[in-house]
Write a structure and sequence with these properties.
The chain is of the alpha/beta class. Helices cover 56% and strands 13% of the residues. It has helices spanning 13-24, 31-39, 43-49, 52-67, 84-93, 103-110, 125-143, 155-170; strands at 2-6, 28-30, 73-75, 94-100, 146-149. Strands 2-3-1-4-5 form a 5-stranded parallel sheet, sandwiched between helices. α2 (31-39) crosses α4. The longest helix is centred in the C-terminal third of the chain and has 19 residues, at 125-143.
């Protein structure tokens, strides 16, 4: 069974995913890194050259390749839940954990990075985060079995909590 992390960027998926990989001795797969590797372009370059839709197609391909395996920590992209078939595949492939954080915390964590092009193109960064979260929040919540708020939880503590929940489900009698 896979341990799957979903949530908006800046909620800690990559940092916590790597910690979980070490703690649980499971391979770690970052969907964004795999997309970049396959495309040979950064995410902004992929979107500029092709479109967000093309990026989402690549994301779905990566998902299909990895959900057929088991025993991995899967760090999905923030928009993976925008396609219902992706959510169905994730739910079949393992336990889905939603990492969430307050908008102010997300903005603080990722406000200065340039690793993603704008999703809306017309708003301030904070407004964009609020707008995208308003759309995605119900999708995230519907996809997840567990929700972990990382706003006030350090990465180590979040990883510890998630590992405990995962192990309790995978090995309930140990």
């Amino acid at each position: 069974m896979n341990l799957i992390l979903i949530g908006y960027r800046g909620t800690g998926k990559s940092t916590i995913g790597r910690l979980l990989s070490e703690r649980l001795e499971m391979p770690y797969v970052c969907f964004d890194e795999e997309i970049v590797r396959r495309a040979g372009l950064s995410i902004p370059e992929i979107v500029a050259a092709h479109s967000w839709e093309y990026f989402r197609d690549l994301e779905s391909e990566v998902l299909e390749d990895y959900v057929s395996r088991s025993g991995q920590v899967l760090d999905t992209g923030g928009g993976v839940v925008t396609r219902p078939r992706n959510v169905e595949a994730l739910r079949r492939a393992g336990l889905v954990f939603l990492l969430r954080a307050e908008v102010a915390e997300i903005v603080t964590r990722i406000g200065s990075t340039q690793d993603r092009p704008s999703l809306t193109g017309t708003k301030s960064f904070t407004e964009e985060v609020e707008e995208v979260l308003a759309v995605r929040r119900p999708l995230y919540e519907a996809a997840a079995e567990f929700v972990v708020d990382t706003s006030k939880l350090g990465p180590e503590d979040a990883a510890e909590k998630i590992a405990g929940l995962y192990l309790a489900r995978v090995m309930p009698n140990s």
